[in-house]
Amino acid sequence: MVEFCDGCWNRAANQMALADGATASPWPEPDGDDVTFLEPPTCVRCGRGIRICPTVYDRWVSLSTAELLAKDVPPRFRWRLTRLPGRRTSVIVDVLAVRVRAIAPLPGELVIPAHRMLCAMEQSEEGWDVDG
Ligand SMILES: [Zn+2]
């Protein structure tokens, strides 16, 4: 496995983030002592609910809160969530967002679309051409 120094790792991670559209701001970690309710995040552009998830390369992506069939989501917007066992406890799990790339999902499989796709739909008058 290739070892990166911090500078090289950051450059590589930023390139992956740009290619994937994983450019969301990190969602604050819940503070154990803070009992105030955290509002679910919403998109600043369209106001829809979003889910902000960390990626495997330490960048954050904003995803739709609902899954869609793979056939309705262009390949570059397809994501999946992977659950990892928590590092400190067996109860809490970390959820990582992973771009679906190597193996194309079946048309009827569910994927999580990047919010960018839905946001673009909102912005464009004709809507997103999901069949194209
Ligand atoms: Zn939006």
Give the gist of this structure.
The chain has helices at 6-20, 115-123, and strands at residues 50-54, 60-64, 68-69, 78-85, 93-99, 110-113. With 132 residues, it is an alpha+beta fold. Bound molecules: zinc ion (ZN).
Explain what this protein looks like in three dimensions.
- The chain is an alpha+beta fold.
- The chain has one domain.
- It is built from two helices and six strands.
- The chain has a four-stranded antiparallel beta sheet. A two-stranded antiparallel sheet has the order 1-2.
- A hairpin with a 7-residue loop joins strand 4 and strand 5.
- It is globular and about 35 Å long.
- The protein binds zinc ion.
- Zinc ion binds next to helix 2.
- Residues 43, 45-46, 48, 115, 119 line the site of zinc ion (ZN).
User: Which class of secondary structure composition applies to the elements?
Assistant: alpha+beta
Ends apart, CA distance between termini: 39 Å
Structure summary, number of beta strands: 6
Which distinct ligands sit in these coordinates? zinc ion
Helicity level:
10-25%
List its traits.
132 residues, alpha+beta, 2 helices, 18% helix, globular, binds zinc ion
